[in-house]
Amino acid sequence: MASQPALLRAVRATIVVCGLFALTDKxxxxxxxxxxAAFGSFATLVLSSFAGGRREKLIAHxxxxxxxxxxxxxxxxxxxxTVAAALVTVPVTFAVFFAGVLGPNAASGTIGAMLLFVLPAxxxxxxxxxxxxxxxxxxxxxxxxxxxxxLSPRPAGDPLRAAAARTARELARxxxxxxxxxxxxxxxxxxxxxxxxxxxxxxxTPFRPLGLGARDEALANVVELLEWCTSLLVDALREHxxxxxxAPEDRALLKAAAATLRAIAALLEGRxxxxxxxxxxxxxxxxxxxxxxxxPLAEGFRTDAQISFHAQAIANCVLAAAADAAVAARVADPExxxxxxxxxxxxxxxxxxxxxxRAARTALRNASVRSVWFINxxxxxxxxxxxxxxxxVSSVQHGFWVVLGTLSVLRGNAAATGSTAVRALxxxxxxxxxxxxxLIAIGSGETALWIVLPLAxxxxxxxxxTAPFAVxxxxxxxxxxxxxxxxxxxxxxxGIVRVEDVALGCAVSVLVGVMFWPxxxxxxxxxxxADAFRAGAAYLTQxxxxxxxxSDSEPQGGAAAAAATRLEDALRAFLAEQGSxxxxxxxxxxxxxxxxxxxxxxxxxxxxPPDSGGAAAARDAIARRTDVLDGWYARLAxxxxxxxxxxxxxxxxxxxxxxxxxxxxxxxxxxxxxxEHLDHLAEHLDELIAPAQRIAELRRAPWWR
Length: 705
Hints:
Layout: H1 4-28, H2 31-45, H3 54-78, H4 82-98, H5 104-108, H6 110-121, H7 130-150, H8 159-179, H9 185-202, H10 214-239, H11 248-268, H12 277-292, H13 301-328, H14 355-365, H15 372-394, H16 399-409, H17 414-442, H18 446-462, H19 469-487, H20 493-516, H21 521-547, H22 558-576, H23 585-606, H24 616-640, H25 669-683, H26 686-699
Helix pairs in contact: 1-2, 1-7, 1-18, 2-6, 2-7, 3-6, 3-7, 4-6, 4-15, 6-16, 8-9, 8-10, 8-11, 9-10, 10-13, 11-12, 11-13, 12-13, 13-25, 15-16, 15-20, 16-20, 17-19, 17-20, 18-19, 21-22, 21-23, 21-24, 22-23, 23-25, 23-26, 24-25
């Protein structure tokens, strides 16, 4: 079945590439303008694919046009010196690749932008050619953007928002059933399935499907909070199957939370208005006051305190999700979310008008060898810098193809790069054979070449994402052979030149992959998992000390949040990386879910007011319980981290001995709530042992295995 997006992409590229090439080569008669108009059209229409509506696409194409102009001028300026070209390529490539961290459209434009630099940097040229080259690029950019805006499929419904709405609705239904004593295991499984579908949709793309805007960040928060709300509800109902016997204040709070979840679903589907968060917050205060009035020595105190804990945790999570959903749905301004009125406001995005600040924070968060963006950018910079040097030193006829060969086969690890290199070279050889046979068959007649050009462009533009990689390489080789023979007829020899050049580029890419990052993204995933568990455990300890009244310092969750985002990026890159995975996705989800549970538990504790009335014995028991968990997470992180010559440790679930128990009458409702939070963490730790053991074994195996 034909792909409509690929078909429209091919139609746009065929019209623009062929039309501009004919105009610039025949009507204007300038080879520099023609060359950059043709390849600029490929950069705009084939190598770059921007998401969103017409406004978002227009902004993205305008940004690409501006960046491409700067890169083209810089590439031309340094092309006369091998040393200058190689040295400048490194920081330029790093900056372009690293800019992808700013959002999905920035990441999608990376290859297209780099084409505008490597084409002039690795080709003969002088500064006097810059105006002609810029004119060709601007013509390609304007016409390509117009074609995208005119010939784009109608935007489909947002699958991420739809999945989030389904999850919210499932949670509301299950909560209402629990309040009416109708909850069952099948309903819980339905909630878990909806949550799994939401996470799968959120992580299904190589790049985060959201940018740095306040509304994008709000939607990301909604996804995370709905996942956390599902965990809270499942734990609550497996501990107390029915919530029908809850205190009246808790029942009212949970009923309002269910109604708010339905309002969240409506907002995400483009319906509804701002939910009644003031009412939900008022009911939350009433529930909290009722819980504070419970007598620790009264019969049923612990059960009542546990149910109150679940009601408060779920309601606070729903309250935060509703505030973010209102912002994500554009029915509330980001400034509307005030930290004084939303208890969970710490998880919301940075306020409106601070996009530059968000970009700076994102860049700083990823300025680390623990970041997949940093490592990928550094590796690409070194590989392309080496390719430019090799192209110039080897004096190949078209050095540009050496660099493009490197660029086209860069992948996350040495094995995947090697596999792609073989397919790229194979596709180029096939394209050379087809193109050579074609050129021999049709001779040097321009008419025949002009007839073949649209067919070649159409195939090259349609192939990405719909046909094997080698097919796209073959079609692109035929296109290049035809283009160059229209500019300067040389026959089939142009194909041989490209095979040789691409082979050099592939070799450079594989060599850099083996030298600098043989394990690829898998190694960064392990590093980031270790960081996420360490930062989360530190945040948890701060939260417990704050809530139990031991420390006056408010918990700081910035490090845990940064580690979580780096882990998300690494996981996306790993799942998108070509080649077989030696660890099952479900095992990874257990570990990633473990980091999220740890961080959000700490976050929930940090939002509780300090307990000034707790007994010393209860505080000591909770502190010892926290120390046990903190030590276990430290051993888990050590197992996931780089081996550093250490053997694989044997992990077993932690044992919470009698010294960690808060005895009846010695604690307040806060003590019970703290124990509940810590117990829910401990109950899920055995799920992490086997996946962590698997990662530890893989990290200690030779990289080529």
